[in-house]
Model the fold of this input.
Amino acid sequence: MESVSILGMRVDATTYHDAVSRVVKWARRHESRYVSVATVNNVMQAYDCPDFARTMADADLVTCDGMPLVWGARLLGVPHATRVYGPDLTPLILGAAEREGLAVAFYGGTPDALGRLLAVVEARFPRLTVAYALSPPFRPPTAGENRRTAGDINASGAGIVLVGLSTPKQERWMAAQKGQLAAPMIGVGAAFDFLAGMKPQAPRWMMRIGMEWLFRLITEPRRLGKRYLLQNPRFAALFVLQLAGLKKFRGAPALPA
Done:
């Protein structure tokens, strides 16, 4: 699998099949790993914050959740790069876990969203074992809370942990739990809300042409206005400079084995 550095952040040219296979392999081995399903927001957060850049570099897999990252990877020499979108990756992982007899845990979302998500999952994957589910407080968890959460998840026997928080919160949480949880963690962002029916998803045609951000901006202007109206133009300008060789960014490390 090839990787590229976009504004200094590593992005892996994975596929749905490859990502699911890796997660299942890690789960069978009880390996503590984490996967970031990345968008332009991840790249810009990493560009602006060296600490978060380290968090992204330490991820075991970074997928192209957004089409701008897919196009960026292709322009940087990986023509086969494809999108691996959190709300589509999540049910694929759940289906694989059901087939493999792996229990899952859910961490994130509001109590209402998590409750609805669990009902959807039970109906869609009746043989899947949900060993643990928690809607954490909106504030950052304390070190003691993180230790208790890790202990509870490990005791539950969950083989895969799906994390539904916003970026950079979910990546920071997974990085803090790496080495504590005996299971791979996958940060899927708003997938909990989408799959639970709490928020509408953009039409597929808008996703294909990279305009999903506009749909989300229209539906959540107060929450996402700053991210899309400020970060997206900055990303585009910086990426043009990178592509033209007019600005150098520190190279991202290779994908961990």
Summary: The chain has one domain: 3-243.
